[in-house]
Design goal:
about 170 residues; alpha+beta; Alpha-Beta Plaits; four-stranded antiparallel beta sheet; 4 strands; about 15% strand
Length: about 170
């Protein structure tokens, strides 16, 4: 039997999912753009905020805050199913896209948020995709720096301060 997911009203979650067999299905930029388009569509369909994100080659990370009457599981199920259907249709294939159900953990406080925020920022740098996280076009820091708020939401001041600190800490000379 599956372990019950910890869901709480008003909570922020670190959410992640990995592709089936850890394959780098998200590597082509067109597939990352497909995933971003599904996120945009989900934001029109459901009431939730994305406060940070990063799309890698075989997985993604989100910091999500569902709206008052929304359920994280419903939102993520829709995102993952719709992406899988569109991905399979585009490639003319059938079968599983995601390796398992999505991971989620409640972010307990600001310090926890900051740690997860920095972990998400550093993903593309650790994989040597970019020299600094602010230049990764499939991450929240890049979207914030370029004023793209089609995925990210307008954020509370304390979160915006983290973006600014991260931008200056990773500034390109």
């Amino acid at each position: 039997m599956r372990k019950l997911r910890d869901l709480r009203a008003g909570a922020r979650y670190h959410v992640s999912a990995r592709a089936n067999y850890g394959e780098a299905i998200l590597n082509p930029s067109e597939v990352k753009e497909l995933f971003l388009s599904v996120l945009r569509e989900a934001k029109r369909k459901y009431d939730f905020c994305i406060e940070h994100f990063c799309i890698m080659g075989n997985h993604y990370h989100l910091i999500v805050r569902p709206g008052e009457n929304e359920c994280l599981s419903v939102i993520m199920k829709w995102i993952m199913q719709v992406f899988a259907m569109r991905y399979n249709r585009r490639l003319g294939i059938h079968g599983h896209v995601w390796g398992d159900r999505f991971f989620s953990r409640i972010i307990v406080d600001r310090e926890d948020f900051k740690r997860i925020f920095e972990y998400i920022n550093d993903n593309p740098v650790k994989e040597h995709f970019v020299p600094e996280p602010g230049s990764w076009p499939y991450g929240g820091l890049y979207h914030h720096r370029t004023m793209r708020f089609d995925i990210l939401d307008l954020l509370p001041q304390w979160i915006t301060a983290l973006f600014k600190a991260a931008s200056s800490a990773y500034a390109v000379p």
